[in-house]
Amino acid sequence: MAEAARRLKNPDTQRLDSTEAAQCYSPGLEGIPAARSKISYLDGQKGLLAYRGIRIEALAQRSTFIETVYLLIFGDLPDRPALEKFNADLVAHRQIKFRITDLMKCLPEGGHPMDALQAAVAALGMFYPAKNVKDREIQYSSVVRLVAKLPTIVAAYARMRRGDNPIPPQDDLDHAANFLYMLTGKAPDPLVAKVLDVCLILHAEHTMNASTFSGLVTASTLADAYTVASSAIGTLMGPLHGGANEEVLLMLREIGAPGNARAYLESQLATGAKIMGLGHREYKVKDPRAVILQSLAKELFARYGKSPLYEVAEAVEREALTRLAPKGVYPNVDFYSGIVYQKMGIEPDFFTPVFAIARVAGWLAHWVEQIQDNHIFRPTEIYEGVHDREYRPIEQRSS
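Below the sequence we write its predicted structure tokens.
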């Protein structure tokens, strides 16, 4: 088995036979390398996350989201002229065509914003054909349009479902501030805009997560960037991935008060139910992004007052430390992000679309990397069904 596992992880070895493959089977592909990448790195034992070798703490403190996007996609921090050009190109492409707006107007008001975002992003590809994905200019224009337009799409849908008209982008505002302006119609407090910008940095990339893998599989067919992003958005919707921050808020509301945290935790553990926002497949210590988000939450609370749900979250974390820390279960990035977004005035079902506004940077970085030396994803499966069944005419089949 050990030899089969070694061969499976070595891309130069020959295909495993069915017996060896069965020995190496890993549900969810846990621990199985699916790609080689230079984009991001994490060490779950040390609580370390880095983009292109730069620690997330340094980027959160000193960088901006747009600079971080450039770093992820192009491999290096930009000099001033490069950053100015990249930002100017993004600003020039923030607008969305009226037919995209019309499309979203036709969607049900009660639908989830992630469904609207996926539909709109898929439609973008029809307006900006980009089939020659190996062309560098097409790659660049696709990156610019997707990064620039996702905030506009999300903000437009948020307003339209309330019966309000979309607000056009404002060119003199940065990426995060412009999104908040399009959402509310008011220039945001610089502190709130800065906190959101850091949140976008924290969510921009995270190695081989489910949505990135989904996007890579799509990219490996040489589909265009809009299709890749749409595929990844669909994967991000699930409550075990991007939707978890919304679920955390629901959990905290269900708990209701800090004094109920212990009983809730004991009940969940007794039944084996999942506790949203706690635990991560990779991290065996507290998620470094959760540490930064917690500090951001405190900055907002100092300005706008403490959130009752934050006190519940702190109580849940305290109780979890005594019961789950020995098992390597700590708060992950979703545990505090929803509380931060709520304090900004963002509605809970828009938490995951905000996640997508950030993570599109990582998806596109992996898309560019994938198609440089592309191999279509075609994993094997272990067949467990029967063989040599006879076909029976319908009159011979019993119900």
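The chain is about 55% helix and 5% strand.
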